[in-house]
């Protein structure tokens, strides 16, 4: 278990990115203000719904599914906003395109890391099935096999995953590009820039939370401070305080497993294991039957939670991938922007890998 640390603070070589996005005195048309308000109000409501009603909800698979759904819906909303703004890609500055393409690759890499960990945990389900099957047999040989499978399960879960650790420097890089560069002084550009700021804040928050959940550490919690006064700002601050507080409380209490369903399986196994260690004596089959039933329920909950969360992570991956594909397609047909064929060819090749 990693020692509880202060919130991670990234360094920004090009100045503080948490500056006001729409400076005082900026004016937008009623239509643009309405579009921005709608986007931010929707994000505000989603953040409020994500705030756990009980501390035990944090890092349950059901809560993590909601977090990933929020991420997918917010990224879909930004696509709709771009359409509503009537801001085609050939009106984007080259630097905006560079940032978007670079960030999309990083998000895809994070999704791959999360999917890898979910797959690793799903593979561990085979060991739990062996435990349950051998416990059902109740012979001394099968009980010894069940004990061995429990040992294997614990080693598998504790082995860690390098792809999750690789997500940490990726999140650092995303922090450095939190805001789009200030290039064009257009009203539509200002709206898109502010909306993208909200998308990136939520993305960084959710990604850092997932990395913390899978690594069992708080070392990647980011000290995200809201710039300006977006409608979603207060909801974001309240959600961050609630979730970060529960993570730190859990780790300070000595827990080395943050995922609730995984912890429930571990508790059930701790009830079964002592009974199996006494297998040289007459086995208390009544106690074993109760522990067997409890383990079966917790294993089923873990399996169904893994399936649901894997589906949501895959869905987010596809949203990011489709958005990237759409931009690259527009670049190919927009001669006004597509003035560097080799550059965007490299982007396509990077995606293909």
Describe the structure.
- By secondary structure, the chain is mainly α.
- It has one domain.
- It contains eleven helices and no strands.
- Helix 4 packs antiparallel against helix 9.
- The longest helix has 49 residues.
- The protein is elongated, with a radius of gyration of 24 Å.
Shape: elongated
- Integer count of domains: 1
How far the N terminus sits from the C terminus, by CA atoms, comes to 34 Å
Classify the beta-strand content into a percent band.
under 5%
**Tell me about the biggest sheet?**
none
Mean pLDDT: 83
How are helices and strands ordered from N to C? Answer: HHHHHHHHHHH
Helix share bin = over 70%
- Please work out how many helical segments DSSP would assign: 11
Strand runs, count: 0
> Mind telling me the C-alpha Rg?
24 Å
Low-confidence stretches: 1-7, 9-25, 335-346
Class derived from helix and strand content: mainly alpha
Blueprint (SSEs and pairs):
Elements: H1 30-50, H2 61-85, H3 94-137, H4 140-158, H5 162-165, H6 167-176, H7 187-215, H8 233-252, H9 260-277, H10 285-333, H11 341-352
Helix pairs in contact: 1-2, 1-7, 1-8, 2-7, 2-10, 3-4, 3-6, 3-10, 4-9, 6-7, 7-8, 9-10
In short:
Helices cover 71% and strands 0% of the residues.
Offer a few descriptive terms.
single chain; mainly alpha; 71% helix; 353 residues; elongated
